[in-house]
């Protein structure tokens, strides 16, 4: 969820045309010692996802309200909390103040903690609106609801930029209160990278403003999310890659397999139809009425969440697994089991590294908690019309290069990670060459319905219901 000014824009436009700007380097504060993720983080993350996607207890205002050549640029990217979130640097105001904001394809608002924030931690860098000459004073209060938390502030307009891209009157929320634990480390807010229909502040997301102004060489955003899980890490590790206005071939090999988005019109979430999940080589048979489960592709959430029945069936395939007594919706499994779980999109199976599926210790010494949890908790998901019922977060996205592409239709693409990005033989935890992407026709590993994946997605996107 994020946002920028106009006077500077013309200026920047002209320079961005020719300059393939150098990556920016930002000083990153690090804590000294590595830490283990705490399960309270996971519970909070799960609740966050439930609320965001309309499965929470409190009613979240739903999302349902629901050429000139430019340039592309690789922007510095940091992995926070052992793959918990990924942030980049955004400049706000005049003169610019730099902030670390989570780059979030699952939301569409830009907000940053303001100097007036009373609930923010002392260590959170805050935006000093008084020292910006382009800040538009406003009294319009707005609240953005997230899981167990919320952010309240005033909707304003400001000059916002990332690298050499800039927008002069970007709508954003200067946050005066945020719930506890919403911001950690050096992060000051969120840059939403989904579509404007999803914006609680009813503002156009930064990236869409750039597209409208033809600032981007192509209407693409490319992500490689680095992996520190399973290794020692500090709280904030430079790593991963975010490219605005294109992709970066350093991080993938082969083709990017683009698929048309499914879901509501106008678009809100970035979402694809997921056809199948395989567990230890067996197809699960997702409980969707059509052939595909609408699934948000969400860089801003850590884990993978899905409908109760499917998640229970998935863990039912793992011998010795059981619901985690202390964490509703989560499951634990014997740590000695190497989880072989793949998601299928567009007829290709994309495996998840077992290291990404293990999110820490269970209630017994030999048990581990799995990174796929019950998102819907028995909610009537058939009513989630147009919204996703699976949320595919970083647990999966670390295993592929992901490209979000605006167009007609909007598309999301996955590619195999390059060796430089940890793919192929460079991947620890074997069995996981993210690439193999077994083709259904040849190997019969995916449902036969995938013969014409694109047609199927287009036809089924809006009529999915679940058999509970
Ligand atoms: C949601 O509501 C159910 C039923 O009232 C309750 O059991 C559950 O604990 C609630 N969950 C949260 C996170 O409040
Ligand atoms: C791709 O990423 C590499 C490594 O971060 C960087 O050096 C290079 O400039 C990037 N290429 C493009 C075209 O952005
Ligand atoms: C691809 O298919 C082959 C043969 O069916 C199987 O042995 C292999 O594990 C599959 N690879 C993936 C990544 O699913
Ligand atoms: C089937 O799987 C094998 C081994 O993974 C692979 O070499 C072959 O190309 C696959 N066939 C098709 C049609 O994808």
From TrEMBL:
It comes from the Eukaryota. PROSITE patterns: ASP_PROTEASE, PEPTIDASE_A1. GO terms for molecular function: aspartic-type endopeptidase activity. GO terms for biological process: proteolysis. InterPro entries: Aspartic_peptidase_A1, Aspartic_peptidase_AS, Pepsin-like_dom, PEPTIDASE_A1, Peptidase_aspartic_dom_sf. Residues 86-415 form the Peptidase A1 domain. This is Aspartyl protease.
């Amino acid at each position: 969820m994020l946002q920028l000014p106009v006077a500077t824009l013309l200026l920047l436009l002209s320079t961005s045309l020719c300059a393939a700007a150098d990556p920016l380097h930002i000083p990153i504060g690090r804590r000294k010692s590595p830490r283990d993720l705490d399960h309270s983080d996971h519970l909070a993350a799960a609740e966050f996802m439930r609320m965001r996607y309309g499965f929470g207890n409190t009613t979240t205002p739903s999302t349902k309200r629901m050429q000139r050549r430019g340039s592309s640029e690789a922007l510095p990217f940091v992995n926070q909390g052992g793959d918990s979130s990924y942030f980049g640097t955004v400049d706000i105001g005049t003169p610019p103040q730099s902030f670390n904001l989570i780059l979030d394809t699952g939301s569409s608002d830009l907000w940053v903690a303001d100097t007036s924030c009373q609930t923010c931690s002392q260590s959170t860098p805050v935006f000093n609106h008084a020292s910006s000459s382009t800040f538009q004073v406003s009294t319009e209060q707005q609240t953005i609801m997230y899981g167990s938390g919320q952010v309240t502030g005033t909707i304003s307009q400001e000059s916002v930029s990332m690298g050499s891209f800039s927008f002069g009157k970007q709508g954003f929320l200067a946050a005066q209160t945020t719930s506890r634990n919403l911001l950690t480390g050096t992060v000051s807010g969120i840059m939403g990278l989904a579509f404007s229909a999803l914006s609680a502040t009813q503002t156009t997301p930064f990236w869409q403003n750039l597209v409208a102004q033809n600032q981007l060489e192509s209407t693409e955003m490319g992500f490689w999310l680095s992996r520190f899980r399973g290794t020692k890490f500090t709280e904030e590790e430079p790593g991963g890659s975010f490219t605005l206005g294109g992709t970066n071939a350093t991080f993938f090999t082969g083709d990017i397999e683009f698929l048309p988005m499914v879901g509501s019109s106008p678009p809100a979430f970035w979402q694809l139809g997921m056809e199948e999940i395989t567990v230890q080589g067996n197809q699960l048979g997702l409980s969707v009425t059509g052939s595909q489960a609408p699934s948000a592709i969400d860089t801003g959430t850590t884990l993978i969440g899905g409908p109760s029945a499917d998640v229970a069936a998935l863990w039912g395939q793992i011998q010795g697994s059981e619901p985690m007594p202390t964490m509703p919706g989560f499951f634990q499994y014997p740590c000695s089991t190497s989880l072989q779980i793949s998601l299928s999109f567009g007829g290709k199976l994309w495996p998840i590294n077992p290291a990404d599926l293990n999110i820490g210790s269970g209630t017994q010494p030999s048990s581990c908690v799995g990174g796929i949890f019950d998102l819907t908790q028995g909610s009537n998901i058939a009513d989630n019309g147009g919204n996703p019922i699976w949320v595919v977060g970083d647990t999966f996205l670390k295993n592929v290069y992901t490209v979000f592409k605006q167009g007609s239709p909007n598309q999301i693409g996955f590619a195999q990670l390059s060796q430089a990005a940890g793919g192929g033989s460079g991947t620890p935890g074997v069995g996981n060459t993210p690439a193999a992407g077994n083709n259904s026709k040849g190997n019969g590993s995916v449902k036969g319905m995938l013969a014409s994946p694109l047609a199927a997605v287009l036809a089924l996107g809006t009529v999915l219901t679940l058999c509970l």
